[in-house]
Amino acid sequence: MDRTELRVGLVGHGFMGVVHSHAWQVVNRAFDLPVRARAAVLCGRDPDRTADAARRLGWDGHVTDWRDLVARDDVDVIDVCTPGDSHAEIVTAALAAGKHVLCEKPLSNTLAEADLMVDAAEDARARGVRSACAYNYRRLPAIGQLRELVHAGRLGEIRHVRASYLQDFFADPDVPLVWRMERERAGSGALGNLGSHVVDLVQHVTGLRFTGVSALTETFTRRRALPDGTGSAEVTVDDAALLTGRLGKSALATCETSWAATGHRNTLRLEVGGTLGAAAFDLDRLNELSFHDATGPRTERGFRRIMVTEPEHPHVTGWWPPGCAVGFDHPFTHEIRDFLAAIADDRDPTPSFADARQVQEVLDAATRSARSDSTWAKV
Asked: CA nearest 110: which of 379, 363, 326, 377?
């Protein structure tokens, strides 16, 4: 085989599978990399739907059993875009077979499964096999710039972090039951699906880790109609979660997640405040940062807008002329760009499975706190 080419097998062709397919197709057109990605094989359960998706999304071939995909000699990378209950089995088998692995977030449904995946990744790493968890929002240029401001000391000592991820996708009680509403498939609801992004971003941007949390969760619509119209079933996950937490020794964080937040289509916000300044990101304005420099004259204080669209900003160089914007799909291409570059350089991509497992530990602590009527839970 040509060692400058990595042949990719993708498991799942739902929403995330479509976005990942686009990223694999685009990455080498946008970035000059020492390796090229080839969209080799798509895997799905239904033969007709998988064949149609492979044709539409540009994959060379398709299979209907992930075990067949993992066993193939003409696949070098496995990209896992399935519900969380299948992550551990697919990932550990792929790593054992010597395939590099990119796995969608959250890493798993339980800490026990996450531990298995971390151990498998460490064993594979010793053989030169790489793995990473796909937290795409890390790769937004504005998030990268916010992290650089924090780590350069522009905000001083971090004191406050306010984060929220709000959606209205399931605000309507007439929306039928989907797999995300079943604990056996999804692990948790808004807490895991949206809260994992929030927790990862807070820790990634600040460089601080949660040391304890107190949480509340609520399920607003407790039964929903089955998609086939044969009746209804219980919703076994949360619709919303509130967390207060301590970061490091002295910083405080508040986090809110909900997929029943009327009026919020897909609103992700992160604000970080310190002794020297503050900065805020809003996904609805994803090419901007709000920045406040508290060291300037009192008469000039207040948030100002920074456009994160210059070649010097993180990941922008592969795209458009200065001043032109990026969109929702771009951070997926960025994460695959970084994943491929790490494999080519024989180094570990980020975030690692261990990093993703630590996010799961925070979510697990939040779940324990919510079940015990919001007592403090150590991470």
From this structure: 363
pLDDT (tens digit per residue) in 17-51? 999 999 999 999 999 999 999 999 999 999 999 99
Distance, in Å, from the CA atom of 177 to the CA atom of 190, rounded to the nearest integer, reads 14
Quote the pTM value: 0.95
* SS3 state at 173: coil
Of 190, 156, 351, which is closest to residue 198 (Cα–Cα)? 190
Closest CA to 230 of 179, 181, 177, 185: 177
pLDDT of residue 374: 60
3-state secondary structure of 176: coil
155 vs 295: CA distance, rounded Å: 10
Name, in order, each residue with C-beta under 8 angstroms of 164's C-beta and a sequence gap of 6 or more: 198, 255, 256, 257, 267, 268, 269
| Amino acid (1-letter code) at residue 162 | R
Measured CA distances, 258 to 13, 201, 216, 265 (Å) = 25, 17, 12, 11
Low-confidence ranges of the chain (pLDDT < 70): 1-3, 374
What is the predicted pLDDT for the residue at 3? 67
Handedness of CA 153, 158, 160, 164 (dihedral sign): positive
